[in-house]
Amino acid sequence: MRWEDLLGHDQQQTWFRTAARNGRLATSFLLVGPDGIGKRCFARLIAKGLLCRNAPARELDFCNACEDCAQVDASTHPDLIQVSKPAERSELPIKLLIGEADKRMREGLCYEISLKPYAGRRKIAILDDADYLNAEGANCLLKTLEEPPTNSLLFLIGSSLQRQLPTIRSRCQCILFQPLEASAMAQLIRRGALGDEYASTVSTLSEEALQNLIAQADGSLTKARLVADEEFRDFRSQLESMLTSRQIPLTALAKEMGALVDAAGKDARARRDRMRVVFEMAAALYRRICLQAAEENLDSRAVATHIRCWNRCLQAIQEVDRNANQAALIEAWSSDLALISGR
Questions:
Q1: What is the 3-state secondary structure (H, E, C) of the chain?
Q2: 225: closest CA among 266, 200, 268, 193?
Q3: pTM above 0.90?
Q4: pLDDT tens digits, residue range 45-60?
């Protein structure tokens, strides 16, 4: 893993390098931006630059040959702590922060980061999925954030500032990340960033098909994986057909969408990602219809109806982010669209 492997985010990289050279690197950072744009990779590269024994830490560079670099790449470095939400949980378990009930503050992130560095220059922790911190978990982090251990650095990674608790936002330096540009997305996808399971699909994509995939992905590799999935490609055409039919097949829409979401398995995050993408697809469809209707000077009442459907899809996206019940949300969304459209 090298800096060259990370495309985009040049401004953030320059900011961190300047802060390190001037000795002004803070102790707690909240890295915020859409999923699948490289925030976690960015944090790991910073950690690698600080832990490499053959390069000055103030440059945030690394030799990529020493034991420290190899251990960071393998996620086995004793001074690098990495915590993320288990796939089967809807929230970040408190035990990952302060240990099991019978081992409180004798294990977990807050305990490990307080220890003296074993081999490196400092202790570094990366807390992925900060979006899924509940109030209890955030309270556990407060002491670490307010009184950071000497030679420690903590990265919290989230998708938006709005999803972070005020107690977390106020105690971290927030660094905003933007979606990847189309050129960076194309390079990463061609390199195999979507994963081995999509290698054959990517290899057969024409340049036009690739650009279409990138346009739908909104600068996120996470969303690109969903869009590239064969199930999603089939469902997309069904979705557009159902939403533009003379009478929205309410039951069929809810059933097909529920099946698509269920196919993601037990991982609550993966299921929510699928729901969000479907609602985004529907919102994009209604947006196109609205623009076309406006250009053709169609009946203003029809345009107003499409705008209401568009707004309902945007509302559904927000409800996904608020962890609304899956079945209830899908049913309510489908029913509302049918009611608004009057078909």
A1: CCHHHCCCCHHHHHHHHHHHHCCCCCCEEEEECCCCCCHHHHHHHHHHHHHCCCCCHHHCCCCCCCHHHHHHHCCCCCCEEEECCCCCCCCCCCHHHHCCHHHCCCCCHHHHCCCCCCCCCCEEEEECCHHHCCHHHHHHHHHHHHCCCCCEEEEEEECCHHHCCHHHHCCCEEEECCCCCHHHHHHHHHHCCCCHHHHHHHHCCCHHHHHHHHHHHCCCHHHHHHHHCHHHHHHHHHHHHHHCCCCCCHHHHHHHHHHHHHCCCCCHHHHHHHHHHHHHHHHHHHHHHHHHHHHCCCCHHHHHHHHHHHHHHHHHHHHHHCCCCHHHHHHHHHHHHHHHHCC
A2: 193
A3: no
A4: 999 999 998 988 888 9
84 burial (CB, 10 Å; 0-12 / 13-18 / 19+) is middle
Decide if pLDDT at 343 tops 60: no
Q: What tens digit of pLDDT does each residue of 92-132 get?
A: 889 999 988 888 888 899 999 999 998 878 999 999 989 88
* Distance from C-alpha of 69 to C-alpha of 53, rounded to nearest angstrom: 8
The whole-number pLDDT of residue 299 equals 67
pLDDT (tens digit per residue) in 266-313: 777 788 888 988 998 899 888 888 888 777 766 677 788 888 999 999
